[in-house]
Write a structure and sequence with these properties.
heterodimer, A: alpha/beta, Rossmann fold, 8 helices, 25% helix, B: alpha/beta, nine-stranded mixed sheet, two-stranded antiparallel sheet, 6 helices, 27% helix
């Protein structure tokens, strides 16, 4: 059977992984826990769809069963969507199989029978390239690859009864009410950093955002230490990644963990009082100055345009 | 009194990394530190053990350089430090790391809870905690934002991409904590002084039944180089701040943004 196996609890990502797996020229088997997703998976490059049927709704609980399945199938690669559940499932599956794992890749290519990946390390300041020559688990974040429709008329859909890990019981589940805006889709972003003195001064950021038509975001410190803005609005390696046409920071020093989240912005503007702040190295345009002076002036100028 | 184990990694401080002209990365001059996120794991075992009367301990896998981490780790409250000392730590992957830590935990014995951070601040691969759980074949709960214990059962609040999931499981288990799980305090002077007197147990690989040959990386690192972002890096000059702001607006217009 061999081939490439793909799974994600996020359907869109799962479709993208099926397409990506297909680039290897090898057989792609898409795994799902939802019977209802099978027909759609069959339309994005999968040669086979395997529906796992077990006693748990949590994907994480199928790691051991998957490890056994992949071993028996002599799988060559297991691509997993990098969601919170996917990452746990991937890491446990890799350990049960005692195989290699590369997490959160920025790129993945199939060359001469090998899989070559790159990923960021040290908060984004280093790029590591790995060559995978034997069975390994690779997690792929959303947004890196697109799903391309390519119907395989011979795609087979099989249901398999498997045993889920029974040891973890769900007490309750509640949907997260997303506060703030969807930053990943924002076209302009105003980002507030620890240079802001008081919570009420956020008004300045909102004023600027209003004239620009921008979303307000922040650094991790503002959300997690000071709790001035919702956790969903902080940008960085453990937070949101943005790709707006304009990212404008006020009082952001520009630690690498933050900068990694703004790299895909088209134009980066930084306003900070410290001329040595690393944010200026990551910026297209910088103004060294007190944001309490700069931002109100900028709001006035923009209003009159 | 069972062991409540916090795993931590002694990492190079990313702010000390030098990227050379040819993009090669010099890690050798970087100071070491306990991975920031692992401080949450250490604080979590201290709090847990305070509630249950168990013994909070730390476990790390590192080369000789990691020795200096023990005092820092123990100043944060744990009663004893365990250290797997092997140079192989410098060049192995997450698979081998979880294998070593799981073997050490079995050797330490009498464990009730193992706490890891989601990931380390150098690699941020987020695979070692679940890897330990799988290798010990005990339950694993990742993305933990809160935890309660009642007897032998823990109830953990997980923060996932689109939902909050509360789960319960029986100990022993591995829990991977998010940075928001707690706020590790800075150790006081007395805690720092006391840390030097706390017991430390050092293991060599053979003490935990492993050999360096079993720990080779399963993927080959082909390249390791600095990331460069090419940006215009224009610092706007002007006689007054108002001039600078007007100049910025003019540039934004040129860029087609406003």
């Amino acid at each position: 059977m061999s081939g490439i196996y793909v799974y994600s609890d996020n359907l869109a990502l799962s479709l993208a992984l099926s397409t990506l797996g297909g680039q290897s020229g090898k057989e792609v088997c898409a795994i799902t826990l939802e019977q209802t997703q099978a027909s759609e998976l069959a339309q994005y490059g999968a040669d086979r769809v395997l529906v796992l049927n077990g006693n748990s709704s949590r994907p994480e609980d199928y790691a051991k069963a998957l490890a056994q399945l992949l071993k028996e199938a002599d799988a060559e690669l297991f691509l997993v969507g990098s969601t919170a559940r996917g990452r746990e499932l991937a890491a446990k599956t890799a350990a049960y199989m005692d195989c290699g794992m590369v997490s959160d890749v920025s790129s993945l290519e199939f060359t001469e029978g090998k899989t070559i990946t790159t990923r960021l390390m040290y908060g984004g300041s280093v790029v590591q390239t790995d060559i995978i020559a034997s069975m390994a688990v690779v997690t792929v974040p959303a947004g890196k690859y697109e799903a391309v429709r390519s119907e395989n008329k011979n795609c087979t859909i099989t249901t398999l009864e498997v045993e889920a890990d029974p040891r973890i019981n769900i007490v309750s589940t509640s949907t997260i009410v997303k506060e703030g805006v969807d930053l990943s889709a924002a076209d302009k972003v105003v980002c507030v950093g620890m240079g802001l003195d008081k919570e009420e001064d956020l008004k300045m950021a909102h004023d600027l955002a209003a004239v620009l038509g921008a979303a307000v975001a922040c650094t991790r410190g503002i959300a997690e230490e000071r709790h001035w803005l919702p956790v969903q609005t902080y940008i960085g390696i453990s937070g949101a990644n943005v790709k707006p046409s304009l990212y404008l920071s006020m009082g952001v020093s520009g630690q690498i963990q933050h900068v990694v989240g703004i790299r895909d912005s088209r134009v980066i503007v930084a306003v900070d009082i410290n001329e040595k702040a690393p944010i200026f190295k990551a910026a297209d345009y910088g103004i060294v100055g007190d944001m309490y002076e700069v931002i109100p002036l900028l709001v006035e100028v923009l209003k009159n345009i | 009194m069972a062991k409540i184990i916090a795993c931590y990694k002694w990492v190079a401080d990313e702010t000390d990394l030098r990227v050379n002209q040819d993009l090669s990365v010099d890690v050798s001059k970087a100071k070491g530190k306990i991975s920031e996120y692992d401080k949450n794991a250490i604080e979590a075992v201290v709090q847990f053990a305070r509630d249950t009367g168990d013994t909070p301990v730390t476990l790390t896998f590192g080369s000789g350089k990691a020795k200096q981490s023990l005092k820092d780790a123990l100043s944060r409250g744990p009663a004893q430090g365990f250290w797997v000392n092997s140079d192989t730590a410098e060049k192995i992957d997450g698979a081998a790391t979880s294998k070593v830590l799981a073997a050490a935990i079995e050797k330490m014995g009498d464990y009730k809870l193992i706490v890891c951070a989601e990931g380390a601040s150098d690699t941020f691969a987020r695979q070692v905690g679940p890897g330990i759980a799988a290798r010990l074949d005990i339950p694993c709960v990742t993305s933990a934002a809160g935890l309660e214990v009642q007897g032998n059962i823990i109830t953990v609040t997980r923060k996932l991409d689109d939902c909050i999931e509360v789960v319960a499981t029986e100990l022993p288990a591995v829990v991977c904590v998010l940075p928001e799980f707690n706020r590790p305090p800075l150790p006081g002077l007395k805690a720092v002084l006391d840390a030097g007197k706390k017991p430390v147990q050092e293991f060599k690989l053979e003490d935990i039944g492993l050999t360096a040959a079993e720990l080779t990386s399963k993927t080959e690192v082909a390249d390791f180089k600095g990331y460069v972002m090419s940006r215009k890096n224009i610092i706007i000059a002007g006689d007054s701040m108002a001039d600078k702001v007007r100049e910025l607006a003019a540039n934004l217009r040129k860029e087609g943004i406003i």
